[in-house]
Amino acid sequence: MKKKSLIFIVTLMIAAAFAFNAPLALAKDMTAKDFEKEALKHITTISVSEAKAILDKGGFTFLDVRTEKEYKKGHIPGAVNVPRGRLEYDIGKDIPDKNASVVMYCKTGGRSSLATNTLVKMGYKNLKNMDGGWKAWSKAGYPVE
């Protein structure tokens, strides 16, 4: 009886080890672009012209997730800067209301898609990711600070 119990326990432990490591094995093979594609499945993306219309209408916070150095070189008027690397830690201070309407952007849209997806997972409800990011905004000739 002891031998059967031992075999069962060892088999169960091996199965658990494989089950818990399976998601890690998949994730380590993903590229940054793969993570972006996955994030885009769970977020709302808008064009730069839609973002401009939102800015003109008001009622949204623009969240710049670029580095502080990038932000200081220029940003959308009134945008709040919370770098992606500090997002989970600092967002509650800058945007505590999880129902706030927020347009997120970075340089080209990649970091902000990941950041938007992160905030969705944290319970934020009214988020939009600006496709093309800061580069598309400035190329369109829209206002900057």
What do these coordinates show?
The protein has 145 residues and is an alpha/beta fold. The protein folds into 2 domains: 28 residues; 106 residues, Oxidized Rhodanese, domain 1 (3-Layer(aba) Sandwich). It has 7 helices and 5 strands, in the order ααβαβαβαβαβα. Strands 1-5-4-2-3 form a 5-stranded parallel β-sheet. α2 crosses α6. It starts with a helix and ends in a 6-residue tail after the last helix. The mean pLDDT is 88.
* Strand segment tally: 5
Taking the alpha carbons of the first and last residues, their distance comes to 76 Å
Number of domains: 2
CATH class of the largest domain: Alpha Beta
How large is the count of helical segments?
7
Largest sheet: 5 strands, parallel
Please identify, by name, the CATH architecture of the largest domain: 3-Layer(aba) Sandwich
Quote the average pLDDT: 88
Morphology: elongated
Q: How are helices and strands ordered from N to C?
A: HHEHEHEHEHEH
- Report the sheet-strand fraction: 5-15%
- Name the CATH superfamily classification of the largest domain: Rhodanese-like domain
Radius of gyration, in Å, reads: 21 Å
Which strands sit side by side, in order, in the main sheet? 1-5-4-2-3
User: How helix-rich are the residues, as a percent range?
Assistant: 40-55%
CATH topology of the largest domain: Oxidized Rhodanese, domain 1
Coarse structural class: alpha/beta
Which blocks of ≥5 consecutive residues have pLDDT under 50?
Answer: none
